[in-house]
Amino acid sequence: MNATDGLCVESCERCPALVESRSRIVNGVGPEDADLVFLGEAPGEKEDEGGEPFVGRSGDVLDEALRDAGLARSDVRITNCVRCRPPENRDPHKEELGNCRGYLEAELETVDPELVVTMGKVPSEHLLDRGVAVTKEAGEVQDARIGDRSQRVLLSVHPAATLYDASQRDTFSDAIARAAELAGVADEEGGQSRLGDY
Ligand code: SF4
Q1: Which residue, 24, 84, 90, 183, is most buried by CB atoms nearer than 10 A?
Q2: Closest ligand 1 atom number to CA of residue 14
Q3: Which residues, other chains included, contact 16 with Cβ-Cβ below 8 Å and sequence gap of 6+?
Q4: Where exactly are the transmembrane stretches of this chain (predicted)?
Q5: Is residue 44 part of a domain?
Q6: pTM of this structure
Q7: What average pLDDT does range 84-91 have in this prediction?
Q8: How many CB atoms lie within 10 A of CB 166?
Q9: 84 lies in some domain
């Protein structure tokens, strides 16, 4: 694997502030031909420590919603818009998102998923290239232009939103269940409709 397929970036110093704050580059995890890709914003403290996206409490919420939808974490690919932890967990700057965009585009081209689920405002706005009211639009499916490709995207709230606002739990788990169904990877009870039928 190498940086050209976006799966494993081993060295990169394009974002000076993030190079300063990171312990390591956190690449995506999961199958290289996954039907579903979950996209977050950036590694946080736990991800920076462990070298894997969405671990810690947000990861637990994601894992639980996946289980409820009949999926295991190992069935899906999980990655971030930027691969290095921003200082004090601030949002990545526009320039940093742009610096890392090529890796994300290469990763999505390599994996070629049925559906990308954007978890939270930053990844949703990054892929759709417009302002997104994520709580209101959660569960909607849209087409995004990513590099030379058109990609189906399902908008979702961030799993951490469910930790401080219980009313977001159903919003999040409904979005994940819908994503599993649309990508054709839901369990028997969740149905088997394909995106092409959507
Ligand atoms: S965030 Fe992406 S572009 Fe910036 S230094 Fe890390 S790997 Fe490179």
Answers
A1: 84
A2: 5
A3: none
A4: none
A5: yes
A6: 0.92
A7: 95
A8: 8
A9: yes
- Around ligand 1, the residues with Cβ closer than 6 Å are 9, 12-15, 18-19, 25, 82-84, 96, 99-100
**Distance of CA 100 from the midpoint of ligand 1 (Å):** 5
Give the domain range for residue 157: 3-184
Task: Count how many domains the chain has.
Answer: 1
> Does residue 198 lie within any of the structural domains?
no
Strands 77-80 and 149-156, bridge-based pairing: unpaired
Question: pLDDT value at position 3?
Answer: 59
The CATH number of residue 131's host domain is 3.40.470.10
pLDDT of residue 14: 97
Name the pairing type of β-strands 141-146 and 149-156: antiparallel
| pLDDT score for 6 | 84
What is the whole-number distance in angstroms between the Cα of residue 13 and the centre of ligand 1? 6
For residue 192, what pLDDT is reported? Answer: 39
Torsion over CA: 44, 49, 165, 73 (sign): positive
**pLDDT computed for residue 178 by the predictor:** 94
User: What is the pLDDT of the chain when averaged over all its residues?
Assistant: 91
| 191 belongs to a structural domain | no
Retrieve residue 198's tokens.
């959507």
Q: Ligand 1 centroid vs 116 CA: distance in angstroms?
A: 21
